[in-house]
Structures are given as C-alpha cells and as structure tokens.
Amino acid sequence: MEYRTLGKKELQVSALGLGCWGMSHAYGRADTTLSVKTIHQALDRGINFFDTADVYGAGGNEQLLGRALKDRRQKAVVATKFGFVGDEHGDLVVDGHPEYVKTACEQSLKRLDTDHIDLYYLHRLDPRVPVADTVGAMAQLVTAGKIRYIGLSEVSVAILEKAHAVHPVTALQSEYSLFERSVENTVLPVCRKLGIGFVPFSPLGRGMLTTAMNEGTRFEKKDYRLDLPRFQKDNFVKNMGVKKTLADFAGQKGASVSQIALAWLLAKGRQVVPIPGMKTARYLDENLGALDLLLSQKEMAFLDQATCTVYGRRHNASNLRFIQG
Fold first, then answer.
1. What is the pLDDT of residues 241-292, one digit of tens each?
2. Got the DSSP string for 115-176?
3. Is residue 169 part of a domain?
4. Is position 3 annotated as part of the catalytic site?
5. Does residue 325 sit within a domain?
6. Catalytic residue among 3, 27, 56, 283
7. Residue 279: which CATH number?
8. How many domains is the chain partitioned into structurally?
9. Which domain holds residue 75?
10. Which of 5, 29, 93, 135 would give a disulfide with 166, using CB separation of 3.0 to 4.6 Å?
C-alpha cells in the first residue's frame, strides 16, 4: 500500500481511503454484516483511512464504523464530519456555533466508540457563524485531545484561508472527479500553496465512473441519485456517452473505468487522497488496482479533454445552497 501525507502536521493515510456513506445511506439497501466485512478486508489490504459523518444514516454510519473497528482502532485513521442538524420544521440546516461543535464531537465519539477522532471536518459552512469562531472551537478540541486534526468540506478559497489563519487545516474535502472539475482553478491550488491535503469525495462520479452503471441502470426508489440533475433523463444518457469514451480508453489500457478515474486523481499530486465508496470486496480489489496504474502526461491531457463537458449540475438546488464557492 502507498501512503500519503495530509497537511503539514503529517497525518499519514493510505493513498486510497474508504468512504463509508453508501454503507448506510443514499445508494441502495444497507447490509451491516457485509459492510463490516468489507471494512475488515480494507484494513487487511492496507487501507487505514475511513470517512464517515454524523448525518450519514442519522448516526448509524458512525456506529457501523465504530463496530467494525472495535478491536482494530489502532490501525485506523478515522475521519468524521459535523454540522448538519434538523431545524424546528424538520428541514436540514448547518450549525457551526462553538457550543454545538463540542456537543457534536462528544456524540460522535460515543457512536464511534473511541476516545479521539483523527480528522474532524466541518461538514458545511454555517453562514450565520464566522468560520473563525467554528474553527476556534475545533482547535479547543485538539488541545483537549478529543480530535487530532481539523478539516473543512466544500468551502470557498476565502473561507479556507480564514480558517487556516486560525488553526492549521489538515485537509479539505470536496467533490472532485473526471466528471466534477470545479475545484481545479479554485481551492485545489490554494491547498497546494498552504500545504493542505485534498480529499476528493465521490471520486467515481457517484457510480457513473464504474462498470456497474450503464444506460439501462435503474435506481431504487430511495436512491439519492434520483434527485440529482446528472442522473435524470437526457443528461444521464449523454453522460453515459462521455463515459463510453473513457471505457474505450480504459480497455486500451487493460483497466476498468473506475481504475482510470482513480489513477487520474492520484496523479494530481501526493496531497490528493480519494475516498471511493466500496461496499464489497469486488470493488475494493478493483479500486486498489488503480494504485498500480500509471498515466502519461499525454494520457492525462486526453482524459482532461474527454471529460471537459458533463451534462447537468452535480446537485439539485436544495443541496447547492450548502456549498460555498
């Protein structure tokens, strides 16, 4: 396994992490037994970086990860996120108030069944609270030994710089893939400049960049992707056309589309650590194959050009309101 460093504080993680969201929420039915088995297999294969959040499965995903790591906690780097809460009307909002930071952390520690969180992210910015106040409270958790490192998710350059001035930010997590490139001219260069690690979530385009999805794919009624513009009607068919170009390229390389997509991200710099979701050993093995796949500059340029047009926004309007920058 290749290991990489997040941030100047030298948090060592496997070059590929495991995003746990899909194990409890969003992408079809949950299978706790299978998920625990997959997490154990990931550890056995050298993956030590596991990503969850308190909102995933209403806390159930943190409980799942805590259960899976019960006797293996020392081998794992646990990342979780806080911020999303329900308001008095039951709508999702973000709470970044300093008092809530501490409350949320204690709740996550209990669900994860651990005495510390390795990397603690603010899941989204609370527009009502200066980011300096939120990060200041997170810094107090570092001092108290409750968390080791601080992260942010889906923030603008300006917010990232303000936060980093209060306390070193170890990692920024944002969506980044061959099908979502908006960070390339915004936060990614700033991360490189400031020595902040970059953790791409949905590195496989929420399944679009895998062999499991094609034009005939039908999603279960509760599947999160049904509400996303890229997966609807004509957009989905057009995006599968873009993927066909990638599949042809992958075939010439003797690889899968997902391996190409992950190798492309890994080649973007040693501070980049993708966290694909992997619910079974089959996908775990396939994705790990990306670590052995080298892409030339010419091939990277071809992939950049082949995916310069993707159809439909990555989120619906409801979700976009939480994203800064």
1. 999 999 999 999 999 999 999 999 999 999 999 999 998 999 999 999 999 9
2. S-EEEEEE-S--TTS-HHHHHHHHHHHHHHTSEEEEEEES--HHHHHHHHHHS---EEEEE-
3. yes
4. no
5. no
6. 56
7. 3.20.20.100
8. 1
9. 3-320
10. 135
